[in-house]
Amino acid sequence: MYKEFETERLLIKPTSVGDAEFIYQLMNTPKFLKYIGDRDIKSMEDAANYIRIKMLPQLNHLGYSNYSLIRKSDDSKIGTCGLYDRDGVDGIDIGFVLLPEYEGLGYAYESTNRLKKAAFEEFEFEELNAITSKENISSQRLLEKLGLEMAGTIKLPNEEEELLLYKIEKKRLQE
Question: What strand order describes the sheet that includes 127-132?
Fold first, then answer.
């Protein structure tokens, strides 16, 4: 019913309530807590509710949201990436996170590059944004590798931390 994507090594499928155990694990990793924030996911039930309340409504309304990354070689769920209609960000934001054991293997670039392509070609976005912590150098490098450029800083509603804002325009890709 909703679009799924594929790369050489990954299946990229909309996150569902069936992914609750994986989402619980992912959202409690040290990097998620440090760079994305504590979403107060303390149980599998919390994770399932988070999926129902935060992820599925956007998927149902816009046709895109959070995607689980599944490694083809062994069906392991390794991380997520997504296109987010986030409060405080003008336009759609691309984001990603991996379980620690899958970092540094090219999966984040592979998945986000595929979603970037879908954003412009299939969902027909004119622009794509990304936000990241000033301390998250690896995220900044990945966004630059994807062709996004730093456009300034931003504070999300009810947050203290000033984040870096990156952007890429569809027309720039066509030049």
Answer: 5-6, 10-14, 66-71, 77-84, 93-98, 127-132, 163-169, 149-154
Q: Classify residue 26 by its DSSP letter.
A: H
Pairing of β 10-14 and β 77-84: unpaired
pTM: 0.95
Domain range for 167:
5-173
Please check whether residue 82 is in contact with residue 64, taking contact to mean a CB–CB distance below 8 angstroms. Answer: yes
Give me the residues of the chain with pLDDT under 70, please.
174-175
The answer to whether 68 and 19 have CB atoms below 8 angstroms apart is yes
Rounded CA-CA distance 23/45 in Å is 11
- CATH at residue 144: 3.40.630.30
Tell me how many domains the chain contains.
1
